[in-house]
Amino acid sequence: MRHLCLTRHLMNRIALTALTFVLITLNTYGIKAPKYIFYFIGDGMGLKPVQMAQAYNHTVLANSEPLLMLQFPAIGYATTFSANQPITDSAAAGTALATGHKTNNGMLGMAPDSTHLTSIAVQLKQRGYGIAIATSVAPDDATPGAFYAHVPHRSQFYPITQHMAQSGYEFFAGGRLRGGSPTGKQDARSLLCESGYTIIDGPTEWEQKKTAEKIVLLNDPRHDNDDIAFVVDSVPYSLTLPFITRACIEHMQRVTPHKFFVMIEGGTIDHAMHNKRPEAGIQEVISFDHALRYAYDFYLKHKDETLIVVTADHNTDGWHTGKHSAEFAPVMAIGVGSELFQGFQDNTDIPRKIRYIAKIEDK
Ligand SMILES: [Zn+2]
Prior knowledge:
α3 (about 90-100) packs parallel to α12 and α10 (about 265-275) packs antiparallel against α11 (about 280-300). The protein has a single domain (about 1-355), classed as Alkaline Phosphatase, subunit A (3-Layer(aba) Sandwich). It contains 12 helices and 12 strands. It has a 10-stranded mixed β-sheet, with helices on both faces. Strands 9-10 form a two-stranded antiparallel ribbon. It is of the alpha/beta class. Zinc ion binds near residues 90, 274, 316 and 324.
């Protein structure tokens, strides 16, 4: 343990020195804060799932072009350990990626001593950015939750949904809500509706209701699962991550065209790997990459005003253990300030760099 602590201490020192160096360098040049920030998080999308998806893309799909994320000019790596474990869960990792602070496994938007941590989404909202939080799993799950909730445990879905309703964010999307009140008096849908959200059930309802101001896009109820369907299961009426991402960008361009922040999570990558279905997981990585293309197309039209950051919260080994592991997470970026994400860093550095680039104070 002593050795581990020393190693951690050293790694923190190295990461901090590297971060200070790049921040000073960037400050010298000076940049304009990007108006549009996209944060793509592949849950469980460590280097191996990315590598295997690229092998599939090249060999089976015979695509001579690499996955889009691999074509981004800034490539780095991130350590993912949590405050109390060398191997993180998605709550601690999500908190690190959303707030820039380590916490214990299971805790969401809170430090180990239960003080509330501030997500970059909240800070950006205070500065006039529209906010969208979308995922291929439940919208009250750990990774999306880290951007709006503060709970001692990730399974506390009722308070998580209350925080979602209170957030004022313009767009949420995911499979299914789980956070009704424990007494059964209030379900999650009414909680959100009372706070001004319009709930849209699946792709077929999207066209009819998409002009609402604040949206929660959920899956078609015929798909009886908290997650959207895996690509390999090709359920015809299910949402897909590319559909969610396209809908999200369309909505944000309509309601908050001057500036917005979008977080897209590929949560089904992790769930396929937990099920030891790497063949399904590979397709989820490819679907995540297709979703990324919508952000990239947006970037091509707004190059000087857009930043896209892609990373993973941790690796999930779908081939052997079906469990999380401590490998470095890949980090890939393009656009305003993207060079900051090159090289070795800790996962907490990623939101701190986004803050720096967006010219908001570090918290
Ligand atoms: Zn997991």
